[in-house]
Structure formats: structure tokens, C-alpha cells
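thread: overnight batch results

M.L. [08:02]
morning all. the overnight job finished for the chain we discussed friday. pasting input first so we're all looking at the same thing
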Amino acid sequence: MKAVILAGGLGTRLAEETSLRPKPMVEIGGRPILWHIMKIYSAHRINDFVVCLGYKGYLIKEYFANYFLHMSDVTFDMASNQTVVHQNNAEPWRVTLVDTGDTTMTGGRLKRVRQYLDDEDFCFTYGDGVGDVNIDELIAFHRSQEKLATLTGVQPPGRFGALNLDGTNVAGFEEKPHGDGGWINGGFFVLSPKVIDYVENDATVWERAPMERLAREGELSAYLHQGFWQPMDTLRDKQHLEDLWQSGNAPWKVWS
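M.L. [08:03]
and the structure it wrote out:
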């Protein structure tokens, strides 16, 4: 199975970082968040990726062009014009990088990579959010529903700590509880290729007309994930993820 990752947005709410690089290349623990997302899928034996590029996409191409060398011990013998790789720690990934346009919307980006997909279901997600989603269970759930599309429903973390009250007495504190109990779209989709027919053109936003039509037709299921999930929308989010990684307590690190 393949995984399609959206990596072409401007990331304007993270302008401190994205003025120089695309949002999926913003680093957590010295690695782009795109790498973290791919490692989540790879931990579930999905190693074939199609990455939808846009804003400063050439930087993502350059990263993967040099990835093998960065992950290897290597000798450059200038006299004989030879390169010897001594140890390779690179992942067994196949990465197809597709320029889907600087201003193309999310649905349009998906439509532009149709030629790189086959006729089986595929995973689809955003290039700026991580979680300890069990991809195997997600795929099994999607297949059991026999529908065209499945999204992962998540409960976003609260921004502030909460008071535990006993009447007017403060009994304790709860740090950043889940929100109001509502579920939102956390990405991590499993889709049939047929859903691409629901996308009209580059201006189509995946989360609007296509998903709304799938819902009306009863072709959209929600896999409810109650574990960790965190988008990287702001500098505060980035710092939170960095703190978790540096503490050795990064819940999305599901690989060994």
C-alpha cells in the first residue's frame, strides 16, 4: 500500500520557520516533521510514498536526493573517482516527489498525483501532524466498513491547563486536557482511488466538496483515535513537539 502526503502548503501561521523552508521540513529533534510522519507509516510496513510538493518543494527534493549519503558512512576517493559506502542506515523507502503547484488546494494536489497510484486503496495524510495512530488497525477498520473513505477522528489537546473543582474549591490541576469532547478530522485517511473522481480541479479543497459529498452518500467512515495526536500549526506547537522529543517521551515515536 502507498501513502500520499500533502507537503505543499505555505504554513503562514509558522512564518518564523516557513519563510525559509516548507512547513514539512521544519525540524523536530533535528529531523523534518515529514520524516517523522514517514517513520510512523514505515513502522507499519508502508514504505512507498508519494509526496505532493508545492511551496519551496525543491528543498524537499534536495533533502531526499542527499538522504542516502546523510544516513551512510562513506569514503570519497578523489584519485580514483570512486565512492564507497561502508554502512547504510537509510530506510527502505521509495519516495516519489511530485510538483503539484504552489497554489493548488489539497484536493487538487491529490488529483495531480493520480498517475502515481495504482488501483488499490492508499493512505493519505497531512505533512504537519503526528500521532500514535495504529495504521494497521486503521486500514483493517477501513476495509471492514466497505466504504470509499475513512478519516481518523481525534480529540485535540486543550491549549491551557484546567482546574479540577469541588464546588468553589480547587481540588487540583489537570495539564492540557482534551478539548470539549468533540471529534475533528485528524487526517490519516485510507482512501479508494475512486474518491479522486470527487475532485474537480486544482481549486478543490479536499475537506470541503469531496468529503461533504462522500458523507452525504454514506461513503465516509471515522476511525476514532483516542491516543496522542498533535498538529504543528504554530511555533508553540513546534516547541511542544520538540520538548516531547528531547524528553524521550515522544508518543508518536512508534518505531524502535
